[in-house]
Amino acid sequence: MDLAAANQLLCDELYDAALVAYGSAIDGDDKCAAAYAGRAAIYLRLEKYTNALQDANAALAEDGACEPALYRKGLACFHLDEFETALDSFQKGFKLLGADAAAAATRKYAMWARKCEAEIEDEDSDSEEEEEEDVPSGVKVVPCDVKYQYYQTNSHLTITLLAKNVKEEDAEIVITETTLICKLKRDGGKSEMTVISGELYDPVVPAECKVKYFSTKIDVKLKKKDAFNWNELLKGDLIGEPKKKPPTFKPAPASTTSTATPYAGKRDWHQLEKEMEAELEKDKPEGEEALNKLFQDIYGKATPETRRAMNKSFQTSGGTVLSTNWGEVGKTDYEDGENRQAPNGMEWKNWEGEKLPQKTSD
Fold first, then answer.
1. N or C, fewer C-beta in 10 Å, the chain?
2. Do 3-121 and 148-223 come out as alike in CATH topology?
C-alpha cells in the first residue's frame, strides 16, 4: 500500500488500518521519512509515546528538516517527561515553518514551548529545594521534601512521587483496601521520610494496583473499587465532608470560570491557554489565511462522514472541488474524465503535457 493511501486513512481516523498501511510503506522504502512521521502521529493518538518517539527519530535520521517529525518528537518527549528535549524539538520545528506560516501552526508551537518552559522551571525549583535541605546524619526520621501530584479517571487514580533515582529497595509502598503508605529511604537506609500516610478517600482493589519506578519519578496506580471521581486523595483532607458517589448528569449552566484539573500541581494550563487565545485574537487573519481558518473550523466541527467527503473531494479533484456531502462524494470518481473539472481558463494535462478529458464548464 502506498504512502498516499496511508495518509488518507490517517485523515479518516482509521488508525488500525493506517498503522498497517504505514508499515507497508516503510517495508517498501525504509528511508521514507514521511512514512515514519505519519506513523508517529498515530502512536501519539494511541498514547504510545515511546513508539512515537522512535518513529519520529527514524524520520529525522532520514530527513533532519522534516517539520512534522520534529513536532511529533516534541509531543512524545513532553509526555515522557523529557521536557528539555521536547523544547529543543519544538524550537527547531518552529524555525522550519518560515515567516509566512499560518497562525494556527505558530500557535501550536508557541503553546507547547511555553508548557515545556513552565515544566523545566518547576523542575529547577524542586532541585534547588532539595539541594538546600541538609539531612542531619544519624537521624532516622527526617522531614519530607518530596512532592507528589495525582490525576484520576472514574476507574483509576495515579499518584506521581517526584523523587529521582529511587531504587525499589529504597521505597516502602504499602497499599491496603482503605490505606496508603509511601515511605522513602535515604543515605543508604540511615534516614527515612514519609511522603503519604493515611486513609484513602474510598476503597481500592489492592491486587489490581501497580507501582512503577522511573529515573525521575515513582508512579502509584490505584484501582478504585467504585467508579467515580474522588474529592481528595485521603479522607483526612476533607474532615466531615461526605463522600460523593457517581452523580446523575444534568446540563450545567455556561460559566467562564476555568474548571480545576485533577492534578495537584500549581500550573493553571487553562489560564495559560486563555491568555494565548487573547494574544492571537489581536491578529485577525486576512485574505487566504482567513479562508484557510474558515475551512479548518468547518473540518474541526465536522462529523467523520463529512471529513471523509472533504478529504476525498479535495484531494482526488486536484483541489478544484470541496464538498461536505458524502452521499454524493462517495459515488463520484473525480479523476474520471466525465467528472474532472479545471478552474475557469485552465485545463488538465498529464506530466508529458498531453491534454486530459475534463468536464466542460456550464
1. C
2. no
**What single-letter DSSP state applies at residue 175?**
E
* DSSP-derived 3-state class of residue 225: coil
Taking only the tens place, the pLDDT of each residue in 222-266 is 999 998 889 889 986 533 344 444 444 444 455 445 455 444 455
> If we measure between CA atoms, which residue out of 130, 135, 127, 132 comes closest to residue 189?
135
Q: How many residues does the chain have?
A: 362
What does the alpha-carbon distance between residue 345 and residue 358 come to, in Å, rounded to a whole number? Answer: 13
Alpha helix stretches (DSSP H) within the chain? 3-11, 15-28, 33-45, 49-62, 67-79, 83-97, 103-132, 269-281, 287-301, 304-316, 326-329
C-alpha closest to that of 113 among 93, 140, 133, 128: 93
Residue 60: pLDDT band with limits 50, 70, 90: very high
Q: Enumerate long-range contacts of 36-43, CB under 8 Å, 24 or more apart.
A: 36/62, 36/69, 37/66, 37/68, 37/69, 37/72, 38/3, 38/6, 38/7, 38/10, 40/69, 40/72, 40/73, 40/76, 41/10, 41/68, 41/72, 42/10, 42/15, 42/18, 43/76
The CATH topology of domain 148-223 is: Immunoglobulin-like (2.60.40)
CA–CA dist 127, 342 (Å, integer): 63
CB 133 within 8 A of CB 145: yes
Helix pair 3-11, 33-45: axis angle to 10 deg: 20
Could you say which architecture CATH assigns to the domain 3-121?
Alpha Horseshoe (1.25)
Would the pTM count as exceeding 0.70? no
Measure Cα distances from 202 to 175, 220, 235 in Å. 13, 16, 8
DSSP β-bridge partners for residue 152: 157
And the C-alpha cell for 195? 511522603
Task: List the domain boundaries for the chain.
Answer: 3-121, 148-223, 285-361
Percentage with pLDDT > 70 across the chain: 73
